[in-house]
Amino acid sequence: MRIVLxxxxxxxxxxxxxxxxxxxxSEPLPPRSLDLSFQEPYFGLYDRAALxxxxxxxxxxxxxxxxxxxxxxxxxxxxxxxxxxxxxxxxLAAAAKVPAxxxxxxxxxxxxxxxxxxxxxxxxxxxxxxxxVEAARAANNxxxxxxxxxxxxAREGGANYVYSILTGFGQKPPPxxxxxxxxxxxPYFAGRNISMPPPLxxxxxxxxxxxxxxxxxxxxDVVTFLSWAAEPKMEERKQLGFEVVAFLxxxxxxxxxxxxxxxxxxx
Amino acid sequence: xxxxxxxxxxxGLTRWLDSRLPILRLAxxxxxxxxxxxxxxxWYTFGAILTFFLAVQIVTGIVLAMHFLPSxxxxxxxxxxxxxxxxxxxxxxxxxxxxxxxxxxxxxSMFFLAVYIHMFRGLYYGSSKAPREILWIxxxxxxxxxxxxxxxxxxLPWGQMSFWAATVITNLFSALDQVVPHMGGxxxxxxxxxxxxxxxxxxxxxxxxxxxxxxxxxLLPFVIAGLVGLHIWALHVPGNNNPLGIxxxxxxxxxxxxxxxxxxxGFYLCLFVxxxxxxxxxxxxxxxxxxxxxxxxxxxxxxxxxxxxxxLPFYAMLxxxxxxxxGVLVLFGALATLxxxxxxxxxxxxxxRFRPMMKQFFWVFVADCILLGYLGSQEPQAVWxxxxxxxxxLWPARIGTLYYFVxxxxxxxxxxxxxxxxxxxxxxxxxxxxxxxxxxAE
Lengths: 267, 442
Ligand code: HEM
Prior knowledge:
The structure holds two protein chains of two kinds. Chain A is mainly α. Chain A has helices at about 5-25, 50-60, 85-95, 135-140, 150-155, 160-165, 215-230, 235-265, and strands at about 95-100, 115-120, 185, 195. By secondary structure, chain B is mostly helical. Chain B is about 60% helix and about 5% strand. In chain B, the strands form three sheets. Chain B has a two-stranded antiparallel ribbon. A two-stranded antiparallel ribbon of chain B has the order 2-3. A two-stranded antiparallel ribbon of chain B has the order 5-6. Classes of the chains: A mainly alpha, B mainly alpha. The interface of A and B includes residues 69, 190 and 242 of A. Protoporphyrin IX containing FE binds next to helix 3, helix 5, helix 6 and helix 9 of chain B.
């Protein structure tokens, strides 16, 4: 008892200083700024080719761990999106294995306990890599990879942040910084210890349009794609917004002239 | 000014209607011929702007409610919920659903911006003083119901901030446990916890809470609409105050509401709507919090819980007080104080144009509210570095809170004892048409 009290007091006094010392190193860096076409708030649209390449990166790399629940295959052909043709959308859907509805015996699992699947149709949502959050956690060292459908809107810094995370691996931690077991150092992530292994490498995908698949390019493409996934109506929004504002400006000019005329002899 | 109707029904049908339900007479007298001071400036257009935004919120809200599902039941393997999914489906699958939702979410912000301007305007021109006390009190009630409505609305998308804001705010009631720690028996919860559980419909914020908040969120705007009706009624008995704060003396001081103020209100409304359109179409998430795009998760507390911007000053006051019950009392006291403004301000002069000292305290008060708003948005343990000295933000927040109350309870009642007001013009007409107050003509 006699020794516990002073110890507790010392700990209480030291704790804030220690905590302060630690935050200095684990405080995340501000995200790096990108200058992608759609980031311009008034007229910026998505780069169609980047969206298609970004989908390829998502499908071939990220979809192993991350779901994209809010996007269906037919969205890939919808206006304002990646602009795949109807035939391409059908082919992309058919290549995917989605969980099948109960068969005529009412089964959804086969005799070896595996989920029965069927080829996708355009109306299907992108199949998720894990059946539930517990399975996702179990397969990823205790940290469930979040669904990516709205990730760009769900993080301070948006597209810049996701890009910084994807390109922020491989840096040397400051001396004394402890990279925890099963985690990776990423200075843009809160606490700087992230459970996601570096997902991108040079040449992780092979682009059919001949673009060189360097990490930076892959990151920009997938960030463009995820920005569209979070905000599929962005192009419609900006275009309609231009018309609405133009109309309102005209209307206020007319209202101003009426106002001056009505009040002409009142002041 | 009420009662002397000039309405003349012209057709057989309108005469027939007028002797049964004089609703056209009411519309005519309140929206057409209503004598309005001829010197109202831009700050007087916010009443019309507020009415417009109430209508926008009700119309967009009713359509959103056709697609929204108030359920916290988990979906997508436990990573999302029915409510969150339904909002995302409004954004993606409903025709112009994104427009409705962005109009509704940003409409709430514009509504509050307008109401704050409207309230500061009322303070500045002394509009709460006799004979407009009830008008002012109705306004304060509208504001309080707006705060409640917006709070309930913010919970609906069931994101992380929705969930945790609901948790923090409902937990304020548990401060009352300090008053009655056990309701019947030593093991029973305190009265505050009991109230909180009654509000939640369970032992924590959950599905039942979301359902009832949706119900209330749907109800309260119509309560506001009713209060607005009373507010306008109470306005039309004494008539508008005006930037000079002097009474209307006769027809030479007024113009009919239509077309003079319909066109003026219309013009400024249109300018305000342009700002609104910029938010909706080009910066739709500017006022939002990114954390609210992460589905609610009761197991993960966000590092930094903040309310929407329009509640930040009160949040700063709450956090500036270490003792929970006292903090809650200060929070509600800050709102309740507004009810007494008509009697706290003892000056005989309404408009601060003619009160050289009060004017300065007023602008400090406006700055104080903005400062408190800023402080409310910062991390609770944040520190300012002022030339080598570390100032924990707690201190400016305390001083700001103190000034809020000093303004109402010291400056307002006692300043008139030492302040000499400037001379006021004899009449509105003289000020507008004569030379006394050139800028009052607007
Ligand atoms: C005083 C007027 C109102 C205010 C200030 C207000 C405010 C809000 C706010 C701040 C939100 C959260 C927006 C978000 O972050 O997504 C919201 C959501 C919602 N409100 Fe209202 N609201 C009002 C009137 C109404 C009315 C009259 C209805 C229905 C009849 C309604 C239905 C809804 C629905 C269904 C949602 C959830 C969808 C969503 O989050 O966008 N609201 N409201």
